[in-house]
Write a structure and sequence with these properties.
Glutaredoxin, 4-stranded mixed sheet, 2 domains, single chain, Serine Threonine Protein Phosphatase 5, Tetratricopeptide repeat, alpha+beta, 199 residues
Length: 199
């Protein structure tokens, strides 16, 4: 069996984020800090991966948000194949959000520029929070995304999930969810897949 070379454990000069490269270490940090794990799955000769490093991760707002809110973990599609296969990752880059139990709660394929990546961070963190009954935290994150990017690519999805978080926060109240969906999602994004998913 061929032995794969060790992956670097120091940040790249072009990437100011200090990434972990070991899943068990990331889980331990996540449990200790109660922060979600932000996973960047990459591979060699990947244009989208290079753009994430060169354009998105170097953005000061993105780097600060990741450093203050997440446990950053970088995994190689091939070198870390046991995990990437378990998570069914086959395209790079793929960004995943995991909770402190190690469960993946949200997945986003390919490159995003910094502005949209900030929205993605809010969305991913909100969905992790919801799985731990952090409905107020999720609503705050999703509302912040909507205010920052009122017409953004992820805004309709954020409104949809805010309705879901409200549903659970209010004791599984369909009326509470529909108040958000019918008042905000349907009028603003009637043709979105998220409006069409309203039960």
């Amino acid at each position: 069996m061929q032995t794969l070379p060790e992956l670097p454990t120091i940040p790249s000069p072009s990437d100011p984020i200090t990434w972990l490269h070991d899943w068990d270490e990331a889980i331990a940090h996540s449990r200790k800090t109660r922060r979600p794990i932000l996973i960047d799955v990459y591979q060699d000769n990947c244009g989208g991966c290079d753009r994430l490093v060169d354009e998105t991760f170097t953005d000061p707002d993105v780097a600060a948000a990741i450093a203050s809110r997440f446990v950053p973990l970088k995994l190689h599609l091939i070198h870390d194949r046991a995990l990437t296969r378990e998570w069914q990752v086959f395209w790079t880059p793929t960004i995943l959000f995991a909770d402190r139990s190690g469960k993946i709660r949200y997945t986003s394929p390919n490159f995003l520029p910094a502005e949209e990546f900030l929205d993605l961070l809010d969305l991913g963190e909100a969905l992790v929070s919801m799985r731990w009954q952090g409905y107020d935290d999720a609503i705050t994150l999703l509302t912040g995304l909507e205010r920052r990017s009122p017409e953004g690519a992820l805004t309709a999805e954020a409104i949809y999930w805010r309705g879901v978080a409200t549903y659970f926060r209010e004791g599984k109240s369909s009326q509470a969810a529909h108040a958000i969906w019918d008042r905000e999602l349907v009028p603003r994004f009637p043709e979105s897949i998220w409006a069409k998913r309203i039960p």
